Amino acid sequence: MEILLEEFYKSDLQLEKFHDRKVSLDSNSYQIIGITKSGKTQIIKNYLLSLKKNSYLYINCNDIRINIELLNDSLTSFCNRNKIDVLVLDNYKPTFKFANVSQLIIASEIDYKVEFLTHLTLYPLDYEEFLAYEHKFDSSALNHFFQLGGLPIMHSVASDERNIYLQETLQKSFTDIEFDIMTFCAKMISQKVSAYTIYERLKQTRKISKDKLYQSFDALKSKNYIHQLEKFQHSRATKKIYLSDIAFKSALSIEKNFARLFENMVFLELLKSQIVSYYDDGVDFYLPKHDAIILCKPFADERRLFKKIESLEAFLFTHSISKVTAISMNTEGRLSHPLAEVEILPFDIWALGD
């Protein structure tokens, strides 16, 4: 392993043009959690390239040449001998042991809950981060976002290869059952779906135990490939389901429903902004800490929107809602209502707002 470690140590890291993210690394030790292709390696390399070349050791734990037992036996002495300050274990697995260095950085899809490391969750690009990749900021940028989603790598994948690329990437990351669950969820985004419902559907086409499906479903949630949204004050009610990246929808399903895709995109912006939200009957997103609700209306019509708000007046009154935001594709305006301020905002303006 000494020869391979020496190769890792002397290798020059390569990084194409890097676009800043809303998270970054400093001199602390980190565990970076994120789905495949979310940009974990890019952030790590960008940080390492700001350091002296001989001060760090970067190891991709997926390298098939690694004999884990031999590497564990050699790693500490190698780091000591070469006075390595920063050790990076990318695609980390618990079978790899840590060396005693000044700074340790590990990256993985799974949260291994290493107590002495600062936890950093990396989601795919939000809309503001996505714009750093765009040449011009107009309506075409939003349409491009719908096509590419939030994985930075998709900007370098040819348009006719994107769906196959995502399919192959997910198949490589998932077990067969996880892939089938993800494919089913892609058909059901922004709808109320339980693990039991998925089990009932999948058992019709494949042999599967309920325990195995529940375990796989929980694994996808824990790795942030799928997200669930609770009904307000009804934690036992069936949750809504969303994908971690909107591009997975078209890659895994031929079913078209732009309104649901649009709602999934709004959910991800709320998630990445760490805004606590719930759904309720007729309400896409209720934000209790803001006394506000969000309605996803990509093709907003003021007359229909006013009727929609009339149907929600009991909710507005009961929960003291002071603001209703209807998020659209390109409509902007305000409605007069006695119970709450009603604003129609295009997605790009809303996503880039405070």
- Multimeric state of these chains? single chain
Write down the CATH topology of the domain at 2-121. Rossmann fold
Question: What is the CATH class name of the domain at 2-121?
Answer: Alpha Beta
Stretches with pLDDT under 50, minimum 5 residues: none
The H/E string reads HEHEHEEEHHHHEHHEEHHEEEHHEEEH
Helix content: 25-40%
Structural class: alpha/beta
Average pLDDT number: 95
Shape by Cα distribution? globular
Largest sheet: 6 strands, mixed
Number of helices: 14
Q: What proportion strand?
A: 15-25%
DSSP summary, beta strand count: 14
CATH architecture classification of the domain at 2-121? 3-Layer(aba) Sandwich
- Largest beta sheet: strand ordering: 9-10-11-12-14-13
Explain the overall architecture.
By secondary structure, the chain is an alpha/beta fold. Among the domains are: 2-121, 3-Layer(aba) Sandwich (Rossmann fold), CATH 3.40.50; 275-354, no CATH class. Helix content is 38%, strand content 18%. The protein has 14 helices and 14 strands. The protein has helices at residues 2-10, 40-48, 68-81, 127-131, 139-148, 162-173, 176-187, 195-202, 210-222, 247-252, 258-272, 302-311, 313-318, 347-351, and strands spanning 30-33, 56-60, 86-90, 103-108, 118-121, 191-192, 226-229, 240-243, 278-280, 283-287, 292-296, 323-328, 333-335, 341-346. The strands form three sheets. The chain has a six-stranded mixed β-sheet with strand order 9-10-11-12-14-13. Strands 2-3-4-1-5 form a five-stranded parallel β-sheet. It has a three-stranded antiparallel β-sheet with strand order 6-8-7, sandwiched between helices. A hairpin with a 4-residue loop joins strand 10 and strand 11 (292-296). It is globular and about 70 Å long.
